[in-house]
Amino acid sequence: MKRKILSAVLVMAFFAGVFVPVRGADKITEYSLGTTVSGTRSEDEDAWYSIKIESDGFYKIFQRNTTTNSISGGNMDIYDKTGSKNLFFVQDAGYDIIPHNFNELENAYIREYAIYLHEGTYLLRDWSFYKRGGVNQYTFKMEKITNPYGEDKEPNQIAADAIPLAFDTKAGGVMGGVFDDGKKDETDFYKIDIPNPMKCKIDLISDRAPVNFAMLNSKGEELSARWENGSIFSWDGELIHAWDRITKFNKLMDKFELNLEADIEVAGTYYIRLDTAKYHEGYNTPYNPYVLTVESGSGTPIEPKPIDPKDEILEVAIPGEPEGKLTALVTEVGIKFEITPNTAKFGYRIYRSTDPNEEGISISDFPLIEGKFVDVNIDPNMTYYYTIRKVISEAGFDRETMDITPEVLGDPSQKIVLNSGRIIDPPKPGGDHTKNFLLMKIDEPDMLFNETSLEIDPGRGTVPKVENGRTLIPIRAIIECMGGEIKWDDPTKTVSLFSGEASATDFEVVMTVGSKDMTSNGEKKTMDIAPQIINGRTMLPLRFVAENVGGEIAWVGSTREIIIVFYTKAL
Fold first, then answer.
1. What domains does the chain contain, in order, with CATH numbers?
2. pTM
């Protein structure tokens, strides 16, 4: 009766993960990796060995046990170096190489299993579960081996350390390995670039326990509920991933399987998070090797969903850029684009088309380097389709062979879809002319002139300021970009702006510091704010300047940006 009660207590303690035997712990023999150890002990005794693990990895244990008067085999636990914490029970935690069966030819229990250990010092305990007074003869050997499922790459417990995953390549890993302080490694992250909408299949096979699977977007936000059927939605609410899940225990393979059939409808970088599920109540398996494969369906793209021009899409992910996105904003003077983060060494290409089935033409001759651009060469009330590609390598020219090396581009993004709406076009000059833009931001010293970054007030760092609701700015560089000239009369504190040879229109604008009165081509006008001198720089009200020198202006409140569009003559 006492023996039955003791056995029940041992079973309960084991499954609770708190079983800490002490028999024989004061008799510890040092063990060297790769050596074979044999010994004899009573079933009521334990044999203890200490081992130092020099490096993380898989270790194979061969175990052979015989007894004189019972059919009880031997078990093996692994403890921390103090012997006070049972890290895991090998017979249940190991990856079986030879099943734990009784070998009638050898009259012994023989088993080989692989476990994953981190660097540190451990104690090994050979013991018998049943205590029947018999004598147990044991033999064991421990040696380092390669991962049966492939190399386990560490660290990858957080998204920042995610391991890149290639299509149609198996990624072998381990969760639940323990450190010598008892801490466990129970989460692995992978990341995969989806270059274009495609069909793919995700296969996950684990050995000792089910594995929780989750997919995350480039921001690290979870897109799916673990272990549930459903759909994955992007952070802007658009469906990007749907699947049918089949989870099963394969008795033939003695493995757990998870199969996801997926239609990836939005290109971009995604993260896969794996973590160990509970094997049974109250017990997390401490060692769980797995293999993960993402098959691309032979790279077969899925048919994109028809684009409804009424449904505007103003933000898309950039293929090949883990965090990259392209954002569009419709203004009264053109379409403003912003690339964040702007990390490509050779820039980006944005293509414009009026046909949803065509990529169209690049909106700029040179790749976009600055990360911002305004497409001003568009017509009002038109639906446009934009795509972005990362420039992988620049075009080149060999002077000896006279050969041109073409530019190499990344995969195209999903299409941005928008309607240009009411576009205000500035006055056009006669003859050949060019449409230009200036983009600047409140409290920033630089501006973008078409594709070139310039200082607003060269060498002085002056920035646009807002006074009483009006934007004040040093105007010289802006007027020069528009083809004009500027003169300053110090005694009268008067600023005169003149059209130049390249200006689209003829203008002469005169303003005086401290006065709201101005003249434009001889006509007297009144401003609602006067030019000022701030920190020694003459600051003019931008609105009244731009509207009187042939420019159209748009104000982007959300980003505090100003866009001026104007024509210049082709000289």
1. 2-145 (2.60.120.380), 159-299 (2.60.120.380), 315-419 (2.60.40.10), 433-569 (3.30.457.10)
2. 0.45
